What does this fold into?
Amino acid sequence: MPHPCGQPPRPPPGTWQHGGVTAATHSTLFPQVPETPDAVLEGLDPEQREVALALHGPVCVLAGAGTGKTRAITHRIAYGVRAGILQPATVLAVTFTNRAAGEMRGRLRQLGATGVQARTFHSAALRQLQYFWPKAVGGELPRLLERKVQLVSESAARCQIRLDRNELRDATSEIEWAKVTQTVPADYPAAVAKAQRDAPRDPAELAQIYSMYEQLKRDRSVIDFEDVLLLLVGILQDRADIAEHVRGQYQHFVVDEYQDVSPLQQRLLDLWVGDRDDLCVVGDASQTIYSFTGATPDHLLNFRTRHPGATVVKLVRDYRSTPQVVHLANGLLSQASGRAADHRLELVSQRDKGPEPVYTEYGDEPTEAESTARRIRDLIAAGVPAGEIAVLYRVNSQSEVYEQALADAGVPYQLRGAERFFERAEVREAGTALRGAARAGRNDSLLDGAEDLASQVRAVLSTKGWTTRPPAGSGAVRDRWESLAALVRLAEDFEAARPGATLTDLVRELDERAAAQHAPTVQGVTLASLHAAKGLEWDAVFLVGLTEGMMPIAYAKTDEQVEEERRLLYVGITRARVHLSLSWALSRSPGGRASRRPTRFLNGLRPGSAASGVRGGTGGGGGIDRGAGRAAANRAPAVERKPRSPVRCRVCGRTLTDAGEMKLMRCEDCPSDMDEALYERLHDWRAAQAALLGQPDYCVFTEKTLMAIAETVPSTEGELVVIAGVGNRKLRRFGTDVLAICAGETVRDESDGATEET
It folds into this structure.
């Protein structure tokens, strides 16, 4: 029975061959523990099974979005433990978030593999540091500084540098970045320049603050979370006996989300592993979206170079998303450039067909938000749970208009990865300032010369950090400005809707809006930034605000920064299981100048847009490469063949394998730009030629070839001959007629001596 909203039903449990591989999200809460080691392998697809059986030697799992990577590695560990090949206490699995580590432990427990350590890098390092500190250094481990902000604030004050609350957060983030990239204070300015990083303040000032921060920590015998890794690295490097102790305890290592490893984490991992090779890493370079925190995919991409004998398994069977969603995701990456793009994985959906992605252009942002809220309400009415719907945007400040639109539509929602708009510190401060100005009225000199409401709001908020131009770079300063800018826009829209409104009226409106958003949010629609959505998935995803300057973000200047923005959009697209909507607004407010353009990343993918350049990748399909081990050495040398260039869709860039699609030079589902009138003329001409020759119509040209001609409208023999189904023989026979028809000229009908007007 079909789902009421039109999505395909979720497949029942079963073997892989019978469609029993499902996304982990849909597993039961209390599954039956497999009775035998072989039962652990049931339901895995061939590539996942290869991962589970690859228990020795270096292993690299390149896992695309939705391909069951966590399933593969947890079954690998569980099978090894249940089969007696791995001792639980000797396995250390590390990942990057407590949520991911908890999920891994839960799955291992469900598979009957208790006793395995599954932790974050910091958690695993802290346990070891606490245990070995008395022996390596003596005494108790210094107190761990839970929050850096207060100490960073004091450090800035001692350097006579004034930082507000948001600048403190930015400075703290810069210190963290410097430490995970193993950059000392003196080298920070040069490192920022080399990385082409937008520092939130003068790098020399930040280096001063960083240096003072480190000094204060030493003076007070405290350490921060980055120190946990740095200190453990130092101990393992200096004390061979302790390093051997750790290596004796942990003999098998698994690293999830390996594309997010920082140089410091990689250094620690190298010390854990030593000269052994029992290491399994899992990652996807196309999901590298945290380079601003020090993460780099280089370790993943260089794994085979560092470990020439590694087994490499590619997971490309996507169990999460429909073919339509996967097709768009593949098309997006086909236009990417850079090293990560060269190793992209082309996903293959394992789900039944679903609805096409919906592309919508709106005149202004409020209309975009209101329409999105209505469509969400319709989905909920059709049976999609509110908790299975998400609205994803580039920056947190975009949430306010969607919070309001959903509240107005009576749709519950929850914010993930950000405070509610009206609970943000800068918004509360702005509200206080506006309330004070409203009470003071014309007695406030700040309002001198500000005649209308919007001018008054801009004057008040200019004291809180709002400027007519946004600040350069990203981080807290930019987020604060975006929040204040949202208030300025709200005031402008409020005044346009209610001419003559006062500051008091606006303050009352703000209070009412804040109160309206205190509704219960259980099972509500998720509002989240694209970064916060990583690792999550929903039945329906709305990607909103997809305009140039927001996607890619305006401060993405270098090629690599722009490509990371493309990967961020890829992550957003691949969060959707069935329903995917992509939208943008041409202007900020109703009646505004339509100066915005939709993101360049959708060029050639959305209907009516021109294709961008398309690149190939070496990622290709799924499979297993067992490396340069003994088996590889015994293989017969491969016969070198001349590589054949893949045929790619001229609309979206996807590699074509279907013969009919290859003739069209586009996917069946991609929009056609065929000249219908030209097609009819070619169709009539073909019928006449076939009758003259006494052969079926398709012996002249097939339907697909006629359609391809009508879509490309060749004007030269060179353009005609490359169309699949033409070739040199038919070019010589029919080329003159076809080119004449394409040019709108008359062609002589040789059957009766008449001429056909074309």
About this structure: The two ends are 51 Å apart (CA to CA). The mean pLDDT is 82.
